[in-house]
Amino acid sequence: MSLSRKAVLTLAGNRAVTSLVSKYGMKWGAARFVAGETLDQTIETVKKINADGLLVTLDHLGESVSNREEALEATQAALDIFDAIEESGVISNVSVKLTQLGLDIDKDFCLENMDRITAKAKEKNNFVRIDMEDSPRLQVTIDIFNTLVDKYGKEHIGLVIQSYLYRSENDVLALGKKNVNLRIVKGAYKEPAEVAFPNKKDVDDNYVKLVKLHLQNGCYTAIATHDETIINLLKDWLKEKQIPDNLYEFQMLYGVRNELQRQLVREGYKVRVYTPYGKDWYPYFTRRIAERPANALFVLKSFFQK
Which residues bind substrate (predicted)? Predict the structure, then answer.
C-alpha cells in the first residue's frame, strides 16, 4: 500500500475529519462519486446514465452495523431498490455488503437477510451481487454466497473477488466450478502483506490473470477497473481468444473515468456503472480518495470554489 493511501485512510479515521467531511462533503466534492442521498434522487441519476447506453449497479451505502434493527433497515433498503428499478424502468441491478446486513452480529441472521434479498432478485428477474470486504470476512462471505447460489441459481446472484489477495486464484478456480458470475476488482481495503500483494505490479498482473482464468473457464466476468492499460490489454486478448460478448462486461465507478465509460460503449462494449447512494457515504468516499491522488485534488478544488 502506498504512503499516500495509508495517510488518507489514517486521516479518514480521525473523528474531527469525519465530522467535518460528513457535514460538508457532498458540497465539497463527494457528489461526484455518490449519486444522491435518497433513492428517488438516485433513480433520476440512473435514468441519465442509462440514456448514455450504460447499465447500472445500485448500492445503498453503509458498512458494518451494530444492531439487528440497523441490519433489517439495510435489508429493506435493498428490497426497496428492486421495487424502484421495476417501477421506474431503469436498467440496473443491486450490490450489497454483508456487514451491512448483520454479518458481524450473527452469520445465520445475515444469511436470512441475504436470502430475502436474493429471493427478491429472483422474483423481479434481476440480479444481486455480494460485495467483498476485508480479508477476515472473506471466507464467510464465500460460504454464504455458495449457500445462496445452490438455492437460487447463478442467474440471480454474483460475487466480488479482489486481485490483491494471494488466495484469489484458488477462489476463482473453486467458484468457476459453479460457473458463477464474478466481478474482479483490485481491492480497496488496508490489508497486511501476509495476505495481500504489497506491490501494485503484482496486483495488476494478478488482476489480468484472474479475469483471463474465469473467462477461459467459460464463466461470466465483470471486468471492474479504470486502468486503461489493463483495459486495452484485455480488449486485445478478448478479440484474440474470440470471447463471446455475452460472457463479460466492463465496470467502472460512478464519477470515475466518465469519458472512458462512454468511449467503451461507442466501441460496442457492455459497460456497467457502479452507482452508490445514501447518507452513509463517508467510508466509500474516503476509499475513492485513497485510491487515486487526483480524486483528492478534485475535492480540494471544489472546496476552494465554495
Answer: 97, 287-288
Q: Which residue type, as a one-letter code, is found at position 239?
A: K
**What's residue 153's pLDDT?**
95
Binding-site residues for substrate sit at 97, 287-288
Q: Tell me the three cell numbers of residue 264.
A: 467503451
Find the catalytic residue in 32, 129, 183, 272: 183
How many domains, in total, are found in the chain? 1
- Joined together, the cell numbers standing for residue 185 give 476488482
- For the annotated binding site for FAD, the residues are 132, 162, 186-188, 200, 225-226
Of the residues 131, 171, 204, 272, only one is catalytic, namely: 131
Annotation says 183 is catalytic? yes
| Domain that residue 153 falls in | 35-280
Burial of residue 42, with CB atoms counted within 10 A of its CB: 0-12 exposed, 13-18 middle, 19 or more buried = buried
Give yes or no for residue 99 having a pLDDT over 50.
yes
The per-residue pLDDT for range 126-135, each reduced to its tens digit, is: 999 999 999 9
